[in-house]
Structures are given as structure tokens and as C-alpha cells.
Amino acid sequence: MGGSQSVPSESSIHEFTVKDGTGKDVDLGIYKGMVLLVVNVASKCGFTNKNYTELTELYTKYKDKDFEILAFPCNQFLGQEPWEEQEIKEFACTRFKAEYPIFQKVKVNGPAASPVFKFLKASKPGFMGNRIKWNFTKFLIDKDGKVIGRYGTSTSPLAIEDTIDTLMRNGEWDLKLLNDMFVEELVKKIEQIYIANKETCDRWVWVINEKEKLNCKTTYVDFLINNLRCINKEVDAQGGIHSYLVGGEECTMIDPQLYLSFQLSRE
């Protein structure tokens, strides 16, 4: 599939230098202290209109609040970004009023992939491992330059607005939001699944697709599911929550988020 690729030694996106649309070097260290959304864009994709429109909406709302969008054109997916940099910029700026930086065209997969995208993929592998599946894959970066989340093409920019807003406010998850949104939604989903599968449900791995790690020094979140008490212990180094059903087997929740679509898979 992806072949062997060298793993970047950098620990932060701020350590990289990229080329802007005119070929000039840009030190990404200038974005320290800002929340970043890095996107591989294309002008002739079926997802172009929705993504560019919502990227502009996000940028307009948050551009004065330590937020930046970094767009990298890529022609690796069915040749859907055939233009040169100046044409790409004119298209995005004229049709979609893009004001955020649009960098030099890059490759995002394969041995010749941009070092930045090698770093992003290694930091947050997706469904296809270290390969990007399609245009408009999005990587969310915190103020320290760490990759917090990876979102596929079908996840629109506005779908992650609340996450962006939370990161900009304090860089950590708000425990009240965790209680009010994450637990409420999680309980609802798990209760439905438990009722449907209680005869065979002994041990499960709960997986939330392409969402953020819970970047929080939180304590415990307890809730009841059909009289079974579920105890979510403190977040571990990988951002996971170790969950225990009292009287049952240990469960592990991977990459929890606040509100969302859930996928449950049997271990």
C-alpha cells in the first residue's frame, strides 16, 4: 500500500519550513501560539465548493483569534489540482474569498511527499495508515504545534468548529463541556448498543473515528448504563481513556471527543 517511508524526527509542525505560492521559504515557527488547520486542497474536486466555502467561513470568524488555515494544493488524486500556483490562488481568492495562505503544490503520499505531510500522517495515522485517502483531509494543530486531530474529506470544516474554539480558548478541554456534551452523547450511544447486544456484550473496544484526543488533565467521569456503572479513568499518555464496567471486563476508549459519531467494533 504505502511502502516504507522515513519517519520525521521533528516533534512539532513549527520546526518545518515550506514554500509559499511564489517559491519563497516560510518558517512555520511563525505560527507558534496559534491553532492551525492544515488542508490538502484541490480546485476540481467534488468536495471543493463545500470545503472552500466553509474554510472561508471559519477563517472569517476566527482569523483575529489566534487561528490560521494552511492550504496545500495537491494534484495526486485523479489530477484534480492541475493548475499552477497563481491560478490556484486566483481561483480560491476570487470565487471563495480565501484570505488564508495557499502554499506551493505538494505531494502528500509516497516517497516524494512533503516533509510536513509525512509528519502529519505519522503523528495521526488514518484509516489507510500513513496514506491520505483524498483531497481536503484536515489536520488540526494545537498552539504547541502538536497534531491533535485528523479529519477525512467528508468531515466539513464547520463540523470541527467547536473543537477549534475550545483549543483557542485554553488549549485544553473544558470539564464542563466534557460532562455536558461528551458524556451525554456517549451514554446515549452506548446504551443503545448495550440494549441491542447485552446477551453477547462482554468486552468491547469503543472507537471514535478521526476525532481529537482528549487533551485534558481530567479526573474521573462516572455514569450509569442500565445500572452498570462505567468509570472513565484519567487520560493516558496517548489520549485514551481506560474504562471499566463494574463487574465486567476492562474496556479501552481510543481518541475520545466531545460529541460525535461513534463506531463500535468487537475486539
TrEMBL record:
One of its GO terms (cellular component) is cytosol. It comes from the Eukaryota. Residues 7-169 form the Thioredoxin domain. One of its GO terms (molecular function) is peroxidase activity. One of its GO terms (biological process) is response to oxidative stress. This is Glutathione peroxidase. CDD domains: GSH_Peroxidase. Pfam families: GSHPx. Belongs to the glutathione peroxidase family. InterPro entries: Glutathione_peroxidase, GPX_CS, Thioredoxin-like_sf, Thioredoxin_domain. The keyword Oxidoreductase applies. Keywords: Oxidoreductase, Peroxidase. It comes from Canna indica. Coiled coil: none annotated.
